[in-house]
Amino acid sequence: METERAALVETFRRADPDAPTLCEGWTVRHLLAHLVQREHHPLRQAADVIARPRPGRERFLGRLVEQARTPAGYAALLETFAAGMSPRNPVGWAGDRAHHVEYVIHHEDVRRGRGPVDPRVLPPDQVRAIWAELAPLARLGYRRSPVGVVQAVPGGPRRVARRAPDAVVVAGDPVELALHASGRVEAADVDVVGRAETVERFLRWSGPTVAAREDVDA
């Protein structure tokens, strides 16, 4: 997880803070503020989620965003994220496995906010870890699918994310599968295969109207 955190820090450092991300209504600055709030101010994070404001209009998140409007403020927010999660935050008690996929997805939120980019080349051990940690997200993301869903890595493993008599196979590298399962449908480089009518039902449900959740492990 800390390797991915360090890589994400460098991407935040190079990015335009006002650039769009894959999270509707959020700039790079908003996304960085979200990660800091999640790791250091969980009660404020919960209050924003409960209030259900329009993306970009969150009360407590907005305060962090405003504090990061200047270059110095943005740098300070980034250093807070780089330093790691607060040891007093219950979110961190679940261990690294609970957060690695979130960092990977948010990393792509930043990278792909302005359109397609070349995929990152990740170490094989990290790719295997993403696949291993993806199951809970897949079950959550596809729980309302009108058809069954099987995730598959081309030439590699597969798993059932949702059981149903008719099913599609969503195939791609683990990072792409994570993006698709979390609602980043247009940004995910995957193939959906199956019977024509089953694929059509799935695509009607999973199309670009399925918004990316602001917190992928919610």
UniProtKB/TrEMBL annotation:
Domain Mycothiol-dependent maleylpyruvate isomerase metal-binding residues, every copy: 5-85
Gene3D superfamilies recorded: dinb family like domain
A matching Pfam family: MDMPI_N
Domain of life: Bacteria
GO molecular function, one term: metal ion binding
Protein name: TIGR03085 family protein
Organism: Georgenia ruanii
